[in-house]
Amino acid sequence: MIKSGLASIEWGGDVHVPHGDLARAAEVMRMTADNGLRTSSYGSYYHCGPDEKKVDFKKILETAHTLKAPLIRVWAGRTGSREISREQREAVVADSRRVADLAFQAGIRIGFEFHRGSLTDDAEETMKLIAEIGRPNVGTYWQPPIGMSFRESCASLRAVIPHLQNIHVFYWGGPPVRHMLLAEGMEPWRGYLKIAGQSPGEHHVLLEFVQNDDPASFHADARALKKLIT
């Protein structure tokens, strides 16, 4: 990471630092600091709602705190906004309020994954959900919705600006072309980041996918990202 010239990293609870493994979290935090990096966030892969009753969110908070993560990324349930029942939606909202309140006490923010298959599957639904939750430390990530035009994607980003947290960066040339080099998508990303710059506060712009999961592609994307944000 340090060779890439990037400044921050999101650690994941699925592989990098499992929930509650504080020894591992402390080790990773030391490596992060030793390499001149900051922890942008903790990707918990927690899905707010009734399905997560067996997951102790306090362990997620303890892990995030050890990593010095200012934000925990979560998912807004496991069902899209057009398929979910009223009862399921109410359960997602109630659990979101619960974890937001716990995080608030720890001085940590909550950021929803902006993704289909959840209640944050488009900008309008995302803003509706955040308003319904009604907690000051709850916001959203953003990424270009797959299959959406540049113009539509810009409108999507503008809509979530009031609650924007971090941004996932990748370039897909459209189905079935996936994981293209970011350098091939500089023009749309210049437009997205110009819009994102209108949002107050600090935002981490995070590389999510790289072509063929190749380290060489990662370094190429890092160079492209640095050009974009400077």
Verbal overview:
This protein has about 230 residues and is α/β, with parallel strands linked by helices. It has one domain: Alpha-Beta Barrel (TIM Barrel). The chain is about 40% helix and about 15% strand. The protein is globular. The model has no long low-confidence stretch (mean pLDDT about 95).
Beta-strand segment tally = 7
Distance separating the two termini: 18 Å
What is the domain tally? 1
Mean pLDDT: 94
| Rg, Å, rounded | 17 Å
Which sequence of strands runs across the widest sheet? 1-2-3-4-5-6-7
Our count of helices gives 7
Category by helix and strand content: alpha/beta
Supply the CATH class: Alpha Beta
In helices, the fraction of residues equals: 25-40%
CATH H level: which superfamily? Divalent-metal-dependent TIM barrel enzymes
Largest sheet: 7 strands, parallel
CATH topology: TIM Barrel
Task: Flag low-confidence runs.
Answer: none
Order of helices and strands: EHEHEHEHEHEHEH
Based on the coordinates given, report the CATH architecture: Alpha-Beta Barrel
Cα shape: globular
Strand content: 15-25%
Can you summarize this structure?
This protein has 230 residues and is of the alpha/beta class. The protein has a single domain (2-229), classed as Alpha-Beta Barrel (TIM Barrel).
Question: What are the SSEs and their pairings?
Answer:
Blueprint (H helix, E strand, L loop, with lengths): L7 E5 L9 H13 L3 E10 L9 H10 L4 E5 L10 H20 L3 E4 L10 H11 L4 E5 L7 H11 L3 E6 L16 H11 L8 E3 L7 H15 L1
Helix pairs in contact: 1-2, 4-5, 5-6
